[in-house]
Write a structure and sequence with these properties.
Elements (H helix, E strand, L loop, with lengths): L1 H10 L7 H12 L7 H8 L3 H13 L3 E6 L2 E9 L1 H21 L5 H18 L1
Antiparallel strand pairs: 1-2
Length: 127
């Protein structure tokens, strides 16, 4: 599945794209009506400040996001999804959806539901 998605992204010119970029872009897309700060990303993904800072700097350099100062606190930077980042998010989502559909080709809805139930139990067993 990863190879299929990676192949699709390469065709779109997004072969430098990383999973952490994808999760952050999705988070920003899903929360674009809210003010999102770096600390929100750190908390949501349970990752350290330095990791988020490095990822955000790269994403900002690529034009996916922008950081803007908050008027009442210069130390806070709001993280904003830029149009290029939204386009990349949509391309990634489409590639994942295509891979998901290909993956379940020839499998009945009932079989897919059984698989999801089994995977849920496995996840619960692992804590």
């Amino acid at each position: 599945m990863k190879r299929r998605i990676d192949g699709k992204l390469k065709k779109l010119g997004l072969d430098e794209y990383t999973a952490s970029n994808g999760w952050i872009l999705k988070y920003l897309y899903d929360n674009k009506e809210k003010e999102v700060y770096q600390k929100d990303i750190e908390k949501h993904f349970h990752i350290g400040r330095s990791t988020v800072t490095a990822t955000i700097k790269i994403m900002e350099k690529k034009g996916y996001i922008s950081r803007t100062s908050v008027e009442n606190d210069a130390r806070l930077k709001r993280v904003i999804l830029m149009p290029k980042g939204e386009e990349v998010h949509k391309s990634i989502s489409e590639a994942i959806q295509e891979a998901n559909l290909k993956m379940i080709e020839g499998i009945t809805e009932e079989e897919v539901e059984t698989l999801y139930q089994i995977l849920k139990k496995i996840r619960e067993n692992l804590g």
